[in-house]
């Protein structure tokens, strides 16, 4: 077992402490005590009403997962803490007359709602249930608690199919002709306990354990093992949570919300997690235990109703919520139970929130003086900003509204209705967009929730499983749409006389809770309109969000070191990029200028077998290229424009060899073969490549086809001269692609400098055009010190660099086996999405150091897709690049993340 390195933990080399009382920990020990345990300890230290208990550390879990056995010291430590708990409570675990009952709950460092195991009411048995009934004066409560224990223990610890318990419960309700389980009487629940025990015996091959300590030990082991369940692994991959953290286990003395109408349980937020607005937000359920609320199986009442139900507990809860938010300086998510008028705090954590809420709350907390601007910047991220830039529904559209639920997680989602996770996954993999519709979701639905565009449930509230998980994933979600009758067995949903069958298109609005039949048209996001200069901060809700985004973006721009450029190939894209805050163009792909009508000119150029033909083709292309650059330099006047010389895989500009062969064969069979087609086919055969991505492209094409690169350089130079003459400020940079050796760059550079000198002499305009290269081959990165001798700048082409380092063809592998690699945990995320720091990143890091050792003033940037990826931007800041370049739409994301990377605040992790 690895030695615990946490500086807050006292230990010796001989022993490690595996169990901590709630009075011993604090909120900074999340690595050791998990988020739940650390925060229970913190609330205890604050003097808040927390039921006594203790936490088994993540180190114990990791030891168990590594060896298959608990640490030898663990049992004795648990016994010592249990003994202390029993003395504090004045009762023993599971004793017959007045039993102490405990809950056994998971609690990892990062919140994983519903992904791991929890067992309540540990300590109940055939003997102690009568003692609990006598002590509480409520037979129904005691037998309800016992059936809950057998149900949870059977499912989570003994692996019994949970539907067997649910079916037995439903049949009992049908027999008694009641709608909800709270209408069942003690005698009904007693019979249900007998049925549940028979299910356990049949399915698990053993009796339900009557020894309370055996119950607790087995539940602890089950929580350890739940760290590696498929659903937990999937959630960690989705949320990028490391797999080696392990989970803590919290043993907490039970308090009961199911003791009658003066008892209950609830979940509260110190601010609205969907909008960020201040107020009273949450759900409350009378006569219930905590799992009833988050499972969404019974519809709750709004937290505000608690003021009428139990004014004393409501006032105390409001005061505690204010205390916690001020202490944590953030939105807090709170679980509580009221036992016969006594309020108990069961959990608090920094709450998950939607993207819009994240920006609003961050600025609100600044205005309240709780955090500074640097911390506010750490409270949001690029993924959230990207989400805010998605379109929203056009509320003025003429569409049929089916119903309305609770706006649990915003967004505009459209897709075909599906009623189980398997179908959601199957249809989405075949390219269909789907909406997963359930009565309520549970952790087993995680795969389907990930696959779906959005989630719709007829039960549950803002704190249900569906709502919490959807917000964490940034998925659109509408919960508790009570007018919708969901029939998962018949795969349909009915609303009045309207029937929605599986496959019918529905639209859900996670910002309003509205549900529509059919596809609703969308309109631009107000955040996009702000970035494009069409919207300003005002008074309404959308303007309030824009104001929050504006403030945080302004701070990010002030503190960031990385400049942000755009990948743009024409004036229209360049102008849009500039509106989005681009500080130049980092990649202009000139091959995109040769598509459409110009393709035939390039084809003639490539296939030309005589100098005259080639020169004619180049003369025809030159004025067109020059005009392209004039427009681009005008759009980006005063800002750098990096123009990459032609870099297409050759097959993109040649006729398809199969189609051409068939055409020639058919013509020959008709004896009317076209001489030009025959000549073309011979040339295509001569130039055909098995792997065009590794063939005649980039600098190789420029060296093999005389005049190609010099034509482009001349067009760039003449366009720059024309703009200067027109009093413009063109700042062109010429980039040579796919260089693998300095000799290639030296040859092209010499030719380019000669052309530029000719244009200077002809026009009389002084031009200073930087010449550099892309680093997109491993050899280029490994010989960066040599290449820097001939380059004034490097731009890392991380798309090709990833392909060549990994030996992956991006066009093929993502569709063929990446899904399997992600599912098996080989990748946490695609290396084409986020840079592979250990492999590709090491080459980038080493090339930066080697290049600058040769040329200290070497300008360094990146122009692959990674330039707009939030996590990758932090890496590029760390290794010392000067700029990142990305698509226009990703520029705000890159600006924000560049600011976050530069900010010295450690911030908070809102994973």
Automatic annotation (TrEMBL):
Keywords recorded for this protein, A-Z: ATP-binding, Kinase, Magnesium, Metal-binding, Nucleotide-binding, Pyruvate, Transferase
Keyword Magnesium carried by entry: yes
Binding-site list for Mg(2+): 776, 800
Cofactor(s) needed by this chain: Mg(2+)
Swiss-Prot/TrEMBL catalytic activity: pyruvate + phosphate + ATP = phosphoenolpyruvate + AMP + diphosphate + H(+)
Domain PEP-utilising enzyme mobile: 432-513
Record-annotated Pyruvate phosphate dikinase AMP/ATP-binding domain positions: 73-299, 307-356
Gene3D superfamilies: 1.20.80.30, ATP-grasp fold, A domain (3.30.1490.20), ATP-grasp fold, B domain (3.30.470.20), Phosphoenolpyruvate-binding domains (3.20.20.60), Phosphohistidine domain (3.50.30.10), Pyruvate Phosphate Dikinase, domain 2 (1.10.189.10)
Domain PEP-utilising enzyme C-terminal: 547-899
EC identifiers of the protein: 2.7.9.1
SUPFAM superfamilies for this protein: Glutathione synthetase ATP-binding domain-like, Phosphoenolpyruvate/pyruvate domain, Phosphohistidine domain
Active-site residues (renumbered): 465, 863
Keyword Amino-acid biosynthesis: no
Sequence positions that bind substrate: 589, 644, 776, 797-800
GO MF terms, alphabetically ordered: ATP binding; kinase activity; metal ion binding; pyruvate, phosphate dikinase activity
Family: Belongs to the PEP-utilizing enzyme family.
Name of the protein described by the UniProt record: Pyruvate, phosphate dikinase
